[in-house]
Amino acid sequence: xxxxxxxxxxxxxxxxxxxxxxxxxxxxxxxxxxxxxxxxxxxxxxxxxxxxxxxxxxxxxxxxxxxxxxxxxxxxxx
Length: 78
What we know:
The protein is of the alpha+beta class and 78 residues long. The protein has one domain (2-69). The protein has three helices and two strands, in the order αββαα. It has helices spanning 2-11, 45-52, 61-71; strands at residues 17-26, 32-38. It has a two-stranded antiparallel sheet. A hairpin with a 5-residue loop joins β1 (17-26) and β2 (32-38). α1 packs across α2. It is elongated.
């Protein structure tokens, strides 16, 4: 948690931070995937967390998200 606050402290001045979401990509729980991006430096929070060792990348994450999307039942339209 401290690593997230550290990144925000550095990048959150003068409206530099933007929330980037992928509305069409959701995880196995239906959550929208997103990231924070510094619009000036193009550094993302996720990149920082991985580089600083606060998070570890999951090599097959995108594959598992796509698998979950394809295997999910179609939502019923009222």
